[in-house]
TrEMBL record:
Origin species: Roseovarius indicus
Domain of life from the UniProt record: Bacteria
Residues in HD domain copies: 74-149
InterPro entries: HD/PDEase_dom, HD_domain, HDIG_dom, P-loop_NTPase, tRNA_CCA-adding_enzyme
A GO term, aspect molecular function: nucleotide binding
Protein name (database record): Polynucleotide kinase
Keywords: Kinase, Nucleotide-binding, Transferase
Signal peptide location: none
Length: 381
């Protein structure tokens, strides 16, 4: 984790670097000096078939220049312009971590969108960027390639609907257009046509610049679970209990939130169960998870509201408990707690069971805050 009481990069600084009328000039020297994660792009190769222009750094600059020259981007409110500008700057920041030279001479960078979103999230967390603004930007990065091939998928409308809950589709379109223009390749025109067709499918699915409107919360949660679900189906909502699922890095303040907002609820806490069983956080957790799941089942069989308290900082980890709760028909409220990096370290060190800084650093790099489609209600605090 970057340890600096006075971060060299602040959100205000990022906003000040967004080009403005009348020159729309990009200060590349200043931008490229912000983070070493940008400088390394200049030495990261790309496949010459898709990127004859050269390395990732050159491509990134071309994409940003194409975006800034777009009248549609220039006409956006400053907050949206800044969001898309920094999404363009950081959209391929994950490539150095996954770029490989293939035996046939090609260069691949599979998975760079997801890795790039994680890197951008950590950089912007340390810069103090607002949570919602940051997550909108990370959504663009995580899905920035989707408009290139969306129209070729067997069910583009379903992907339209899901994407509309992960990022703004009109912003995704603007980024994709700049991404296509900011490269040298023989199929550039075909890519641009695919992007335009993707925009039409977003509009056809009624999720252009807005999330698709499900009939209710259960309809949305079920749609993201089941591949053959009708998006217009109005699901019946009758829940035997409500389970509050906590999410957040160690020391973020989950226990404090529970004490303040759910004082009357029983709590299934993995930390407490570990203490009861004498299992350390580095031991095999099978016994702990089994005991926690059984306690959760007892509460749900009794129709009792309760709290599930664990870090749950990745979607994969959350999915295990969410699946169990869904099997019992519970209404799920996801609560994500986040504080600044410096405050997180202070709060963690003041706990009797403080987690090593290195462990928090590891978790912060994997962090995937809950998305609004994951549960019936998601609160970011």
């Amino acid at each position: 984790m970057r340890k600096s009481m006075k971060p060299t990069v602040t959100h205000d600084h990022l906003l000040a670097l967004v080009p403005a009328d009348p020159a729309w000039k990009v200060d590349w020297a200043e931008i490229w000096s912000l983070w070493p994660e940008l400088a390394i792009l200049d030495t990261c190769p790309q496949d010459p078939i898709h990127h004859a222009e050269g390395d990732v750094g050159k491509h990134t600059r071309m994409v940003v220049e194409a975006l800034v020259a777009d009248p549609d981007w220039q006409g956006l409110p400053i907050v949206d312009r800044a969001n898309l500008f920094w999404a363009a700057v950081l959209h391929d920041v994950g490539k150095p971590a996954v770029t490989k030279h293939q035996d046939d001479g090609r260069v691949s960078s599979r998975g760079h969108s997801r890795i790039g979103a994680s890197i951008a999230r950590e950089l912007l967390w340390h810069a103090g960027s607002p949570f919602a603004w940051r997550e909108d930007l990370c959504g663009i990065i995580a899905h920035h390639q989707l408009p290139f091939w969306l129209i070729e998928r067997p069910d583009p409308i379903r992907m339209d609907i899901e994407t509309s809950w992960r990022c703004r589709t009109d912003h995704l379109y603007l980024h994709a257009k700049a991404d296509a223009l900011g490269r040298t390749c023989e199929d550039q025109q075909a890519i641009l046509e695919n992007i335009s067709l993707a925009a039409l499918t977003f509009q056809e699915a009624d999720c252009w610049a807005r999330r698709f409107a499900f009939a209710n919360d259960e309809s949305r949660v079920a749609y993201f679970e089941l591949e053959d679900r009708d998006p217009h189906y109005a699901a019946h909502e009758a829940f035997p209990c409500t389970v509050t699922v906590m999410s957040g890095l160690p020391g973020a303040g989950k226990d404090t939130w529970i004490t303040k907002h759910r004082p009357e609820h029983p709590v299934v806490s993995l930390d407490l169960i570990r203490d009861e069983l004498g299992v350390s956080a580095t031991d095999n957790q099978g016994q702990v998870i089994q005991a926690a799941h059984e306690r959760a089942r007892e509460h749900m069989r009794a129709g009792r509201d309760f709290v599930w308290n664990a870090t749950n900082v990745t979607r994969q980890n959350r999915s295990k408990i969410l699946r169990l709760l869904r099997d019992y028909g519970a209404r799920i409220e996801l609560i994500y707690v986040e504080v600044s990096p410096d405050r997180l370290l202070r709060q963690n060190r003041s706990r009797p069971d403080a987690v090593p800084d290195a462990a928090i650093d590891h978790l912060s790099k994997k962090l995937e805050p809950p998305q609004i489609w994951e549960a019936h209600k998601v609160t970011w605090t």
